[in-house]
Amino acid sequence: MISFLYFLTAQDTAEKNILTIIGTTNVHGEIDPCG
Amino acid sequence: MGGLARKATVIENLKNQGLNPIILDAGDLLFKKNIIDPGVTTDVAKVNAEIIIDSFNHMGCDAFSLGSKDFAGGLDFVLEQYKKSNFPFLSCNIVNKSGELLFEPYTIIKSNNLDIGVIGLTSNFDNNEVQVLDPIISLKNIINEVSNRSDIVILLFNATQQDLTKLYNFDFEIDMILSSRGRTRSSDGGSRIPTYIAGDRGKILYKFELNIIDEKLPITDLAWCENTIKRVGDRLEKMKQGNPDSDLINLYKNDQKTLSRIYGYQAQLNQANQSLENAINSITFEKIELDKLVFDNTKILKIVDKGKEKILEIGGPFMDSKGRLPGDPHHGHNH
Questions:
Q1: Which string of b and e fits B130-169 if b means at least 16 CB within 10 Å?
Q2: Which chain B residue has the Cα nearest residue A28?
Q3: Cβ-nearest to B201 among A19, A20, A26
């Protein structure tokens, strides 16, 4: 029983955390679409 | 191609998909150059910068780390924008003449049950209103504090290549670097700490996906692994001189120089394959081009249009060399 509970807990902690990051660099003051 | 209104649409779409993106900018955001011609040109550039800050306030930004070009309008202007912004301005090594930090050195962002530490840093630049402390020493002074408070640490670095190389030799607990100042668009994060330059002139966004299973382990850059396997694999194939069954070691047994190269390539291939097999946490990315297929967010367009009216009122900019007026999307440049 204890082994089974441990297994369940381990499965929870193994779930992925997915982070979505949007990165921009060097915009250089450009504001406008150009095509 | 490019533009704030299109970036806003991308962000909105991601939020509508429930992805809760973390939005970061690594600097050289506000101005095109370190020094701008005085007069109308500076005034126009400042209005442009204000448009960017207003737009970022609306579309959302979780952290902006200042770079050298961001001070082109003067320190007072930057501090005004800092007050107007609803997002953190970061730098752990830009100080005033008294040696005091001008901005927060880092921020902690909570996302998906993780604490993300984001540090702002810049390589040295010349400016008579601020001082730039040594970036590596500044990072050493702060990294433990940030690392102890975070599950993941991201560095936003307006970096010279030289400083990046120095940084890699220190084994800092940094999971990912977003770098500005360079002009290349990264095709992977490289073989050290995943490091990306996400394009320039706001034409492209990079969307990163970090899959974190155990935050105590490093993050494997899957694109680097795959690119290395392809690149090195192609080189080794080419050396087989048209016979895919060739045994390279035997083929070049009398050519020590080439043999040495082959061993080097095989080691790189093994390292990449092992990294891929052993990856627990990973980073992948997608380039999002802000082209015509991306709709313009109307709220941001209004901010941009209002700014353009202000630019006309202050008397600039005028027609460019091709006779194009402001408002022409190709004003001032060709493709």
A1: bebbebbebbeebbeebbeebbbbbbbbbbbeebbebbbe
A2: B32
A3: A26
Q: CA-based Rg of chain B, rounded to a whole angstrom?
A: 23
Burial (0-12, 13-18, 19+ Cβ within 10 Å), B260: exposed
pTM of the model: 0.90
Number of Cβ pairs closer than 8 Å across A and B?
Answer: 162
Q: C-alpha angle B312/B318/B319, rounded to 5°?
A: 130
Per DSSP, the residues of A1-35 read -HHHHHHHHHHHHTS-EEEEEEEE---TT--S---
Q: Do A24 and B10 touch (CB under 8 A)?
A: no
Q: Is residue B113 very low, low, confident or very high in pLDDT (cuts 50, 70, 90)? A: confident
Shortest Cα distance from A4 to chain B (angstroms)? 21
Tell me the helix, strand and coil percentages in chain B, rounded to 5.
40, 20, 40
Q: At what angle do helices B75-84 and B40-59 cross, to 10 degrees?
A: 20
User: Closest Cα of chain B to A12: distance in Å?
Assistant: 10
Residue with tokens 């494997």: B220
B273-315 confidence digits (pLDDT tens): 999 999 999 999 999 999 889 999 999 999 999 998 999 888 7
By three-state DSSP, how is residue B280 classified?
Answer: coil
Q: What is the helix (H) or strand (E) element at residue B263, kind and residue range?
A: helix B256-278
Can you read off the two tokens belonging to residue B311? Answer: 């630019």
Q: For residues A33 and B7, give the distance between their C-alpha atoms in angstroms, rounded to a whole number.
A: 10
Q: Enter the tokens of residue B183.
A: 């002009």
3-state secondary structure of B219: strand
State yes or no: cis peptide before B317, omega within 30 of 0.
yes
ipTM for this prediction: 0.87
Q: Which two tokens stand for residue B179?
A: 């770098």
Which tops the pLDDT comparison, B152 or B326?
Answer: B152
Q: How far apart are CA A18 and CA B211, in angstroms?
A: 5
